Amino acid sequence: MKRFITYEFVCGVIGGMLLLGIASVVQAAGDAAAAKENYRELCAKCHGESGKGDGPAGATLATKPADYTDCAHLQTSSDKDLCAVISDGGPARKLSKDMAPFGDVLEEKDILDLIAYIRSFCKKP
Ligand code: HEC
Fold it and tell me: Cα(104)–Cα(2) distance, rounded to whole angstroms?
């Protein structure tokens, strides 16, 4: 239950800001560089150092982590969607349960930073 409240709170704040049309404020709040260490420590083993979903642990999973350098894929998810999965785990958006919930480990700011970091993998030519 705690996780649900965390998700509602953290991701609700993001969604609310988007609704109010101050999305740029949210983007400014996410500091990609600040997320690097958290990403390396908690996420890279599955999602890969370069975000391609090619981390050593990811390779063994039935559902492979998505390729974040694929801009088309990432555009299908809003910040609120990404936040929900990071906070509450894959099942929050009918994705694999191998994507664990990190809402108890990460602060709201950490999650925003990670979203900015993940989005930075997608480089348009
Ligand atoms: C045990 C392996 C594993 C770890 C560790 C892991 N993930 Fe995932 N993640 C997955 C899998 C599997 C999925 C579901 C398939 C996919 O990528 O869409 C997923 C999905 C996601 C999604 C949804 C992608 C989308 O398309 O909407 C996000 C966002 C995400 N992970 C972020 C993270 C972050 C941030 C961390 C570190 C805090 C992390 N993951 C750690 C395996 C992992």
Answer: 8
